[in-house]
Amino acid sequence: MQIEFQGKNVLVVGAAQGIGSGIATAFAEAGAAVYACDLLADEVKKLEGPCGKGRISTGFVDVTKEDSVIETVAVAGKDGLDVLVYVAGGVAGQVDQPIEDVTLDQWRIVMDINLTGFYLFVREAVRIMKKAKKGRIISISSRAGLATSLTGIQSYCAAKHAQIGLVKQFGQELAPFNITVNSIAPGFLLTNPASCAQWESYTPEFRASFTSRLVGGRTGVPSDISNAALFLASEQAEWISGQVLPVMGGP
User: Fold this and answer.
1) How many Cα atoms occupy the beta-carbon half-sphere of 75 within 13 Å?
2) What is the mean pLDDT of residues 224-243?
3) Buried-most residue among 82, 166, 186, 251 (CB within 10 A)?
């Protein structure tokens, strides 16, 4: 199955590192004009330029600021918007602690970057997609959206569960406009400083036991997730919506 995106405009939110960088690159290599954005503007700028059959443009965005989201979608969608991939999120540098020690500000920032930012980007993207009567929206969730979180961070687990709920609701609402909405739930990937630090906090015995239960005896890599994103954004997935695709190397 050959998946191509020549002539397609793709917005990848949270593209500076790991999964987001891999997804932006994969879409460009398949021919898309990709707008890759991130709070880490200097890092995401490294992606800028021709890439495979397509090209990557880059920009700054703060997903917690409504004006920043509106401006980003306007720039990315000036010639139309075929695909939105929301990768932004994470734990905002937090570590596992008892719920009685979690401040409201700590709770809110994790909810904002994982959930509210997703809502804002979908809200703005569908203004463009509805006019074209087509579109693909993909969120990068987590195993933590389907079970508990290995991070132990309560707000992260809650936000990812809620994000998947939005995916299902948006999938129902936007189906009449030929817009599909799906989520990918990655397993453990060592793709950024936070995930690497989390991995190093585990004992060697836990790490060995964990990877032994996965296909190939390894943790995930960005291409595992970008391949799934390319499929869900393709014409071959036109009748798939409101779904969550676990990409975890095992059950």
Assistant:
1) 17
2) 97
3) 186
